[in-house]
């Protein structure tokens, strides 16, 4: 999959493309069903399959700090999209010009810049200033510009329409199995291991401090996790996602993972943390000895969980 940020870099789209547009936050099961339809249509028409996403996401542009937490970082979204058979990801900067663009102007730009031959959209897709454009609008525009429009139906799991909002809610509640059902895989956070204050090592539980790019996270607390390192090896462990109230007074989200049966140096490595079970909410302890005792309990609970999964 090729990533482009400027339409002038997209020579391969000169003969046209099959396009879909959306946030694709989490690249969940419903997204993948639509992307399968996109790739299938592109193969039939012998054209590139193109995904258009916006950065920042429109809701982040409009709501700023009040926007909901992302399920995935931009990087993780790109990685997941690259596994779907899509040829091109067009990552468009969302700015004032796009925010004020009418639905008609947006469709005009799709025709002029991307030479769209077919458009695949979700059943709830809206676009343009004040969300003026929808599926019916696109059908009429397609007649004018000569492109077809295909609507992807909702993806249903346990009688629920899968959506990023539904997954975000499940994660916030600590319902990791439910979130995994909707995502079609374990929920994962990834990032690069950075140097911390070495407090975990002092407590007897050395941790990997992982840089979280998102300003918000849909999960908080202590979890049983698996950690995949750059070599491909996977370790079980326990992780805290939050602000470390017992250590320091900060507001930035931190991800700290203690790997079982691991010794070595992970600094600078990019690791992926898969969340399996929520053990408890984050809390502030009166002292480091109390915190140390709780970490030991958390580790025992996580090991018990993984042992049960193997039987």
Briefly note the CATH topology name of the largest domain.
Rossmann fold
CATH architecture of the largest domain: 3-Layer(aba) Sandwich
Let me know the average pLDDT. 90
Strand content: 25-35%
Structural class: alpha/beta
Description:
Helix content is 33%, strand content 26%. The protein has helices at 29-45, 58-63, 74-81, 96-99, 103-114, 135-145, 164-172, 176-183, 199-202, 288-310; strands spanning 2-4, 17-21, 49-55, 88-93, 116-122, 148-152, 156-157, 160-161, 187-194, 208-210, 221-228, 234-242, 254-259, 270-280. Mean pLDDT is 90; it is low at 245-250. It has a six-stranded parallel sheet with strand order 1-4-3-2-5-6, sandwiched between helices. It has a six-stranded antiparallel β-barrel with strand order 9-10-13-12-11-14. It has 311 residues and is of the alpha/beta class. It has two domains: 2-160, HUPs (Rossmann fold, 3-Layer(aba) Sandwich), CATH 3.40.50.620; 187-310, Elongation Factor Tu (Ef-tu), domain 3 (Beta Barrel), CATH 2.40.30.30. The chain has ten helices and 14 strands. Strand 5 (116-122), helix 6 (135-145) and strand 6 form a beta-alpha-beta unit.
